[in-house]
Design brief:
The structure is a single chain. The protein has 245 residues and is an alpha/beta fold. It has 2 domains: 149 residues, HAD superfamily/HAD-like (Rossmann fold); 86 residues. Helix content is 48%, strand content 13%. A 6-stranded parallel β-sheet has the order 5-4-1-6-7-8, with helices on both faces. Strands 2-3 form a two-stranded antiparallel sheet.
Length: 245
């Protein structure tokens, strides 16, 4: 019996990436905005190119290390470390301003997927528990603000971000933590995500029904991994899940 649905975030509920900007590019835009903020406040004399190189290199190394060990992490850790290495000491108020500057260009491009609020509300009204399980290198409060902006936050009372839980998908512990938070067994839940290797396949290995949602800017190869179902947009999920009742 279907009792709960877990969703990925980026590419599944909200679009962060696009054909023109992947995560690396979005971080670069954030770092550039951070440089402008620091420069405007007279806190940095380093050339912008050198600043961006230092931040990009350190953040990529941190993310790759996190992936290798399936542990969560935040871009703010290498950001703070790089600033410290450059001799830039910020007060708490200054850090809040710097942080806001970094995230601003990222949050400006976020868009909800078609029919996302209607889909979540319909599923909630049907008595299905809803949750979110996402690999996030950006801070959870920023993602919560994005969800709130599009009227989705209250529809997802269970939200597990890897930057907080310390565990990345596809590690099975990530899915187990989410199932525990929802209070359901794997065969009572569905996972919906836009990537086969980090969403669908590991969810199915744990025992969930794995649904792939397509994204317009990336094609997932279905030859080696077969999802339980494939949808193009979220409203298709409502009728599809009648098979899991």
């Amino acid at each position: 019996m279907l009792k709960a649905i877990l969703f990925d975030l980026g590419g599944t509920l909200l679009h962060y990436e696009s054909a023109e900007a992947d995560i690396v590019e979005l971080n670069r835009r954030g770092f550039a905005a951070l440089y402008r903020y620091l420069s405007a406040n007279g806190q940095i004399a380093l050339p912008e190119a050198a600043f961006l190189t230092a931040l990009t290199s350190r953040s990529m190394a941190e993310w790759q290390a996190a992936i290798a060990s399936f542990r969560g992490g935040s871009v703010e850790t290498p950001m703070k470390a790089t600033l410290a290495d450059l001799g830039i000491a910020l007060t708490d108020d200054e850090w809040r301003g710097a942080r806001q500057a970094f995230y601003a260009p990222i949050q400006q491009i976020v868009e909800p997927r078609k029919g996302v609020r209607h889909t979540l509300q319909t599923l909630k009204d049907q008595g299905i528990a809803l949750g979110l399980l996402s690999n996030t290198f950006w801070a959870s409060d920023v993602h919560d603000a994005d969800l709130a902006r599009f009227g989705l936050l209250d529809l997802l009372p269970v939200r597990l971000y890897s930057c907080d839980t310390g565990r990345l998908k596809p590690h099975p512990e990530a899915f187990q933590m989410a199932l525990t938070a929802l209070g359901v067994e794997p065969n009572e839940a569905v996972y919906v995500g836009d990537r086969l290797e980090t969403d669908v396949e590991p969810a199915r290995r744990v025992g969930l029904w794995g649904v792939l949602i397509r994204v317009p800017f990336r094609h997932e190869q279905l030859a080696k991994i077969t999802p339980d179902a494939v949808i193009s947009e979220l409203p298709e999920l409502i009728k599809l899940l009648e098979r899991r009742r």
